[in-house]
Amino acid sequence: MNNGNFLEIMELISEKDPIIKARLSSKNAKCTSPTIQNEIIGIMAETFLDEITDKLYQSTWFSIMVDESKDISGREQLFVVVRYLFDHTLHEEFLGFIRLHELNAEYPKNSICEMLLTCNIDAKNCIGQTYDGASVMNGTNAGAQRLFREEAAPEAPYIHCYDRCLNLVIVDVVKSVKIAD
After folding, report:
1. Could you count the other beta carbons within 10 Å of the beta carbon of residue 21?
2. What's the CATH code of the domain at 73?
3. Domain-located, residue 178
4. DSSP H or E stretch at residue 146
5. Could you tell me if 30 and 71 lie in one domain?
6. Which of 30, 42, 52, 157 is least surrounded, with the fewest CB atoms within 10 Å of its CB?
7. Domain count of the chain?
8. Is 38 in the same domain as 105?
């Protein structure tokens, strides 16, 4: 019987954590309602984000990788990843999704800047940026990359992201393999 991802993960954690086990065994206050679940997930996300921003602050320089995709409802969204060197190790960390309400270059640029600001990340410390091939993102005269560099991070050159091309190749290859259909 599947109780959902959250409850299944809590059950797994309770095998090692007696406090969680006691809470889940309680008859009165299990703290598993959807509202509490969302609050716990939100707190966990904030904790992870705080750890990432602390490491970014210590490492100073970073680059951003931004790509777009459609969510399950068909709405366009950006996902933002930062890449940085911390403790002699290269890290790539997911910061979050940005729902695209407008499909112009100004909107994603502003959204990326706002996300960095919310995470207490100084955009001026960005030393590289990469986006997919969409003209709204990579346009040399009015793309989001150009606007981001002019306003937020003058030292962040744009490098084309080939993720989308690779994804299209994989999709075509899988289509040609009958067993994968």
Report:
1. 15
2. 3.30.420
3. no
4. helix 144-151
5. no
6. 42
7. 2
8. no
Neighbouring CB atoms inside 10 A of 132's CB total: 20
Same domain, 76 and 15: no
| pLDDT tens track, the chain, 181 positions | 787 888 888 889 999 999 988 888 888 777 778 888 889 888 988 999 999 999 988 988 999 888 888 888 888 888 899 999 999 999 999 998 888 888 787 888 888 889 999 888 888 998 888 887 665 666 666 677 788 888 888 877 777 766 656 667 777 777 887 776 5
129 close to 145: Cβ distance less than 8 angstroms: yes
Answer yes or no: is 54 within a domain. no
Joined together, the tokens standing for residue 170 give 């994989």
What distance in Å separates the CA atoms of residue 43 and residue 51, rounded to the nearest whole number?
Answer: 12
Helix/strand/coil for 177:
coil
State pTM to two decimals: 0.72
